[in-house]
Amino acid sequence: MSDHEKPTAGAEAPRASASAERSEVPHEQEQRVPADSQQSLQSPESPRSQPSQGWVSPVPSLSGMGRRLLLAALAGSAADLAGVALIASAAWLITRAAEQPPLAALSVAIVAVRAFATTRGVFRYGERLAGHDVALRAQAGTRERLYQALIPAGPLRQEGADLLSRMVDDTDAVQDLLVRCLLPAAAALVTGIAAVVVAAFLLPAAALVLGAGLLIAGVLLPAATAAAARRWSARIAPARAELAARVADLVHGAADLAAYGARDRALSTAMDADGRLARLERGQSRIDATALGAGMLAQGLTVVAVVLTAQTAGLGRVATAVLALTALVSFEPVLPLAAAGERLASVLGSLRRLREIGATPPAVAEPERPAPPPEPPLTVEVEDLVVRHGGREPALDGVSLTLTPGKRVAVVGPSGAGKSTLLAALMRTADIESGTIRINGVDVRRHRADDVRAGITGLTQDPYVFQATVRDNLRLAGPDATAGDLAEAVRRARLDTWAERTGWDTVLGEDGRTVSGGQLQRLALARALLFDPPVLLLDEPAEALDEETADALMADLLGATRGRTTLLVTHRLRGLEQVDEIVVLENGRVAQRGSHAELVAVPGYYRDLWESEALTRPHL
Amino acid sequence: MRLARAERGVRLHLAACLAAAVAAGLLVLVQAELLAGVLSGRFAVAALLPLALVVTLRGLLGWVQGISAGRTATALKTVLRRRLLRRFEEIGPDGYRSGELVTLAGRGLDALDPYLTGYLPAVAVAGVVPVAVVVRLFAADLPTAVIVLLTLPLIPVFGALVGWTTRAVTERQWRALARLGGHFLDVVRGLPTLRAFGRARYQASVIRDVAEAHRAATMRTLRVAFLSSLVLELVASLSLALVAVPVGLRLLSGSLDLHTALLVLLLAPEAYLPLRAMGTKFHAAMEGVAAADEAFAVITPSGTADEEPGHETAVREARRTAVETTAREGLPTAADEPARAAARTAPRGVPSHGAPEIRLEDVTVRYPGREDAALQGVSLVVSPGERVAIVGPSGAGKSTLLHLLLGFVTPARGRVLAGGADLAELDLDEWRRRLAFVPQRPHLFAASVADNIALGSAAGPDEIRAAAAEAQAAEFIEALPDGYETRLGERGANLSAGQRQRVALARAFCRPAAQVLLLDEPTARLDGRSEAAVVEATRRLAEGRTAIIVAHRPAMIDLADRVIRLDSGALASGVTIGAGIHDTGSHSTGSHSTGSHTTGSRPEPRAEGGAA
Description:
The complex is a heterodimer.
Chain A: H1 27-30, H2 35-38, H3 64-98, H4 104-150, H5 161-202, H6 204-252, H7 254-259, H8 263-313, H9 317-330, H10 337-359, E1 380-388, E2 394-403, E3 408-412, H11 419-426, E4 434-439, E5 442-443, H12 449-455, E6 456-459, H13 470-475, H14 483-492, H15 496-502, H16 517-531, E7 535-539, H17 547-560, E8 566-569, E9 581-586, E10 589-594, H18 596-601, H19 605-615
Parallel strand pairs in A: 3-8, 3-9, 6-7, 7-8
Antiparallel strand pairs in A: 1-2, 1-4, 4-5, 9-10
Helix pairs in contact in A: 3-4, 3-5, 3-9, 4-5, 5-6, 5-9, 5-10, 6-8, 6-10, 8-9, 14-16
Chain B: H1 2-6, H2 8-40, H3 48-91, H4 98-105, H5 112-140, H6 142-151, H7 154-189, H8 191-196, H9 200-253, H10 258-299, H11 313-319, H12 326-330, H13 336-345, E1 358-365, E2 375-382, E3 387-391, H14 398-406, E4 413-418, E5 421-422, H15 428-433, E6 435-438, H16 449-453, H17 461-470, H18 474-479, H19 497-509, E7 516-520, H20 528-542, E8 546-550, H21 554-557, E9 562-567, E10 570-572
Parallel strand pairs in B: 3-8, 3-9, 6-7, 7-8
Antiparallel strand pairs in B: 1-2, 1-4, 4-5, 9-10
Helix pairs in contact in B: 2-3, 2-5, 2-10, 3-5, 3-10, 5-6, 5-10, 6-9, 7-9, 9-10, 17-19, 19-20
C-alpha cells in the first residue's frame, strides 16, 4: 500500500487533506482557528434555499476550474520538458564541443543549459502550487455537492461513524486523482510526445523504438498495476476489516475474555487474521516490485535499443548522444505513472462510492408545487399510516393518531415497535407507504419537508454535539435567540449548572468528548425548547440519565409542556397520568390507547410495564 | 533504527532490501560507464550487450528490492502487532485509551510502510551511491569532482535550513488546518440534528466558506513548504549546469576527452538524485516513525499509567474492566514468582464440588496513581450458596470487589480466600473456570451469537440453545436473520442493552460448572420489561450457586439473601434499603439479612454472613 515513487507533485508536501490529522485538538490550539469555522453554526443568515442539484461528476467542470487545471498541467509539462531539454542540450554541448567548433557555435547551447537548469525548478514550484490549488478547489466542490446530496434524508440510512469517516475520506480521492494521477500523467504525456518528436527529427526509426518503450512504461505498466491493485484491494479490504474487528474484540472485550479464559484463543484468532492480511499484503507488494523492476528494464532496454538503432543507421555522434540521453531522461516523468496507476484503482473506488451516494434517491420526494407552509396552531392527523424501511416488514402498520393544539400524547412500547419511525414519518425523514398525515387538513406530501419540520420537530434520536462552543451548539436551534432565551432553555433542560461550569464559550470536543450522555440529552432538550416548534417531538428525553435526574427532568418536562402540542416517546411511565392520551405501539400497530388510568385498569403491555416499573421503584 | 534491531527475522528481509537497492544504485555507475563508452565511440557497438545485461540486472534488483521491502513491512507489522496485543493483555486497558490502541494495532502500523519500503532503502542508497559517484568522478575528472563535492552538501544543508525555517510556519497552521478540514465530517455527522432544526441547507454555504478558508490556509502553508523542494531542485539542476558548461569549454580546448565528458554528464546527476529522493520520502516516513515510537512506548514496560485528572470516578471504574493483571499474569514480579511457581507445581485445589466459601480478610486495594484506596480494610465472608447484593454509590469500590474475586486486581494488603485457599496461590485460570462473570457492559464479539454465548467453553449447539433459553434470550435470538449464526459486534446485528445483557447471562448459563456468580449491575439502563426478564434469568442462574451481585435497582436487590453496602471503599453498617427489603445485615457485626419475599426468594437457610 505504499506509494514508493510518488509522482512528482506534492510528495513531500504536508498533504492538504481534511483527514490528515483529526486528532484531539487542545484548547489553546483551538483558539487560533479562524473565526468562521467556530461560528459556523450560528452566523445570522437568511437560509439559502437552493434546490438540491443533482449529483454532478466529481471531476471539476471545465468552466472555472479548467483554466487552473490547464495552467497546472502546463507548468508540470514545462518542468518535465525543461528537465529533458537540460540533459539533451548538455549532451549536445559536450558532443559538439568535442568536435572543437568555434566557441560561438556553442554559445546558444551554453545559454540553454543554464536557462533550463533554472526554469525547471521554478516551473515545478508553480506546478505544485497550481496543482494543489485546483485539487483543493475540486475537493471543496465535491464536498459541497456530496453534502447537497445528503441533505434530503435517505442516502445514508445506516450512518455509522466509520462509514461517514470513510465517505469524507473518499472526498480526498478527488485531490489524489488530480495531484497524483491526472497532472503527472498529462506532464508525462507531453514530455513523451516531445521526446518522440525530437527523436523523429533525428532518426525516425529511433523515434519508433522510443515511442514503444514509453508506451510500455507509461501506458501498459500503469494499466497493469491499476488492474492488479483493484484485484488485490478487493481482497485486502475485508482482511483488514477482519483484523480490525479481532483487535477491537481483544481490547474492548478484555474483561470478558479474561473472566471466561478465552484470551489465548482470541489472541491466536487475531494473529491468524494478521497472517492472512500479511499474505495478501505481500502479494500486493509484488505489484510494486514488478512495476519497479519492469520500469527500470523498459527504460534501460529502450536506451540500448535507441543507441543500437542509431549506430546501425550510422547516425552522427552528436545526434546519437542527444538521442540516447533524451531517451534516458524522457522516462523520468513516465516511470512514476506505474505507482499512480495503483493509486488510481483506489481513487476510482472512492469516486464510485460517492457516485452511488449521489445516485441514491432521497427517502422523501419533494412536491412539484409545494403547498404554502402550514400556519400554527397545527392540528396533525395521522390516519392508517404504513411506513416500511426497505423490503422488510412494515415498521408502522396502520397507525392513527390526532394531535390537536395543546394536546399531549405519549407513545410507549418495546424497542422496535415503531416509535421512532412514527417520529421520522412526522418529520418527513421517512416516507409514507400508505395512509396519510395531514397538517391542518393538508397532506404532508404536498408540503416541502423543511416546512413540515419547521412545524414538527424537537429532540430526535442520537442528538449530536458539534465541535463548536456551548452557545453555538444551542443557537443552531435558534439563530436569533437572545442570551435570555438561551439561559431560559438551558434552565428548563436542567443544564444551567453544567453550562455555567463548562463556560458558554468552551468548544466542545469531537463526538462531544467533554459531554456525558446525560448532558448530551439535556443539551438536545434545550435545543428543542429553544426552537419551540408548534408541535414538539421528544424522543426518549430521559434516555441515558440516571434515575433521579430522569425523574426530575420528566417532571419538569411535563410541567413545561403543559398546554403545548407534544408527542412524547418514552419508556418511563411515571408521570404519564398528566398527558391527554397514551398510545401503546407493538409491532408497528397501536395495541392500546387511552389515559393512564384506563390503561392500568386493563391487562396488557402498559400494565405489565407499569407493574415491573413499580417493582423497581421503591418509593412509588 | 530501533526497528531493525527489534526483530531478527525482520532484519534478513530488510538487509536484502537495502542490499538490492544499493546494488542497483551502484550499477548505475557501470551503466554510465558503458553508455559513455558506446556514445563516445571508445567501445564498439558490441558493448551494448553488457549494457543490456546491466540494465536487466538493475531491473531484477529493483524487483528483489520491492519484494523484500514488502516482506520486511509485513513481518515487522506482524511482530509489532503480536507484541502490542500481548503487552496489552499484560497491562490492561488502563494505561492508555483503548480506542487508540485498536487504531494503533490496526491501521496505525501501516504508517510504517512508507518508512520501511521507501525511506530506509532511500537512506541506504543516499549513504553509498553519492560517495561512489564522487570517487569515480575524482578518478575521471578532478574539477568536476570538486564542483560536485562542494555543491552536494548544499542539498542536506539547504534542506535542513529551509525545513527549519518553514517548520514554524507549517506547524502553526497545521492544527488550524486539521480543524478546518475536520469541519466537514463534523457537519455530516450532525446532519440529522441540523435537519431537525431546519439548518441543513444553510450549512451548505458554511461548508463552502470553510472549504475556501481551508484552501486559502493550506495554500499559504504550501507556498512555504514547497520552497524547500524548489531550493533542492535548483541546487541539483544548477550544479549540473555548473558541471556541463566548463566541461564543454574544456572539450573545446582539447584538455578533456569525450568519453570522460559524457561519463561526467551521466554521473553527476546521479550524485544528487539519491539525496533528493531521501528528502522526498522524509515526511511520509516520519509518520511511520511516530507510529513505531507509539508502538514501542506501549510495548516497553514503563512506569505507571498516567491518569487523566478530572475524569469522573465512575468513568474510570467502568474503564477498569479488565485490568491490572500485571503482577499476576503477564510479568510476574520477583516477589510474585515464588508464589506462581508454587501454584504451578502444586496448584492449590479448592474443593471441586459445591460452591466454595469466599472470605476477604482485611483487604485493601489500591490503583496506581490514585491516593485513595479503592477498597479499604474490607473483611467479608460469603458462604457457599449465599446470594449477596452489593450496593453503594458509584466509585464506592463495588466493581473493584468483583475484580478482586476475578483476580483482575490484587490486594495491597490482606488476602482473599476461596474455599480456604489464598487466591494469590491459586491457578487463576482454574479459579476463573469456576466463576461466571456478567459485567456491566458485556462486550459482544465480532462472531456469531452461538460463539458469543459459548465464549471460552466447549459447549455444543444444544447446550448453547439451552443456555439461551435459560437466559430468556432464545426468543429474540431466533428472530435474528440467521438465528444463532447471526454475526454480532460492531459490524454485526445490533442488540438492545437488555438483549446484550441476556446474551452475557447465557454465557454464564453455558458454564454449568461455575459455582460462583459475579454480576456487575446487570440491569443498569434497562427498561422495566427487559429488567424483569434479566432479573428472572439471574434468579434462575443463582440457584445452587454463590452469587455476588452489584446492584442498585430494587428488583435485583430483592434476589439477595443479604445486602452489603460499600461506601468509599469501606463496608458501611446498619443499612436499610427501600421497599421490598426488610432488613439488611450489619456486616461488621456479623448479623445478616432475613431476606425479602417479593420475588421468589428461595426458602434456603440463611447463610452465615459476617466479617471474619
